[in-house]
Amino acid sequence: MSQSENKADQGSASLQREIQQRQDQVDQQGPRASTVSKDKEAVQTSDHQYPGTPLPAQHLEKPGLEAEMQQKPEFLAPDYCGSGKLAGMAALITGGDSGIGRAVAVLYAREGADVAIVYLNEDKDAEDTKRYVEAEGQSCLLIRGDVTDPSFCRDAAHQAQERFGRLDILVNNAAFQEHAEKLTDLTEDRFDLTMKTNVYGYFHMAKAALPYLKRGASIINTGSVTGLQGSEHLLDYSTTKGAIHAFTKSLASNLLEQGIRVNAVAPGPVWTPLNPADQSPEKIAKFGSQTDYKRPAQPQELSPSYVFLAAPCCSSYITGIVLPVTGSVGG
Questions:
Q1: Is residue 237 annotated as part of the catalytic site, yes or no?
Q2: What is the DSSP secondary structure assignment for residue 199, as one 8-state letter?
Q3: How many domains does the chain divide into?
Q4: Is residue 167 part of a domain?
């Protein structure tokens, strides 16, 4: 990596932290969040007991390291048995170092795909994910850089193609999120960064990967329940997620004749570093309790949907959908 590229990566991370620090100062001036209700049990729909609230009251420095989370996200999906659905394929996953991206990388490898992971600067998380992918018997390429930079995106797609000799799946998953109580708290630089990471980043990566995608390939975008329903305190973030849903459907129509499918997954609250790096410790303690499940999802509850949408044997007749996995009845 060149010195200029490294400075660019650090610049985005520094801007994320500056925005976070400004919002933290605003939050400290407001009323303290209410305590977590203890009279509601988390809903379980399998033999596995997933953690409910209260969650550890922790606040992470952006962009957020999974290695620093007090309660580690569950991503290994021990009950999921691979069956070669992606055998011989190669995938590129942005934001693949942690959270949903890490869980998807592990299952893609379990299904037989080699995986390239794009991440901003979370080296420890990326190295850990690489070990988990390699433990599944597949190759893993780590690519450090900023998806807001179109030249980096072109280079990342080229690196994946060069390493694996093909590129079959693009998962756009990298995101920036920071809450704001009021519209007036949203500065132009904050709105810009959210838009450039969450929308431009998806656009840049799709455009960069397209020359390498052949018939049977797919693009999967990570949307959000906030893009379906809006969010009072995530004005810029939910705006980008709604745009991602529209981008997904439009790109699906655009690429259909080339035999390339484009779909999105719209998660509800998921226990990943993104959220403790946004919410205050008091609010993160009850994260996900507003869903019908009364708990957040764990990444391994999302990752099988990404396998389903990537595998031609499962979803060759599906394109342009936004699949809600929200933990609430009816999505």
A1: yes
A2: I
A3: 1
A4: yes
CATH of the domain at 157: 3.40.50.720
Q: Which residue range(s) make up the domain with 252?
A: 81-325
Alpha-carbon distance of 114 to 106, in angstroms, equals: 10
Question: What are 80's two structure tokens?
Answer: 């999921």
Residues 6+ apart with CB under 8 A from 47: none
Q: pTM (2 decimals)? A: 0.83
Residue 201 to residues 21, 150, 177: CA-CA distances in angstroms? 24, 8, 14
In a domain, residue 314? The reply is: yes
Tell me the C-alpha distance between 40 and 293, whole Å. 10
196 φ/ψ angles, rounded to the nearest 5 degrees: -70, -35
Given a contact cutoff of 8 angstroms between Cβ atoms, the answer to whether 162 and 143 are in contact is no
Would residue 2 count as lying in a domain? no
Which pLDDT tens digit goes with each residue over 16-65? 888 888 888 887 876 554 444 445 789 898 888 887 778 777 676 777 67
Q: What is the DSSP string of 184-252?
A: GG--HHHHHHHHIIIIIHHHHHHHHHGGG--TT-EEEEE--HHHHH--TT-HHHHHHHHHHHHHHHHHH
Q: Which residue has the higher pLDDT, 148 or 289?
A: 148
Report the C-alpha dihedral over residues 291, 202, 108, 276, rounded to 10 degrees. -40
Cα 209–217–226 angle (5° rounding)?
A: 75
Residue 113 lies in a domain: yes
- pLDDT digit string, tens, across residues 213-252: 999 999 999 999 999 999 888 999 999 999 999 999 999 9
Q: Which two tokens stand for residue 267?
A: 């998660």
124-162: pLDDT as tens digits:
999 999 999 999 999 999 999 999 999 999 999 999 999
Residue of 108, 119, 202, 237 marked active site:
237
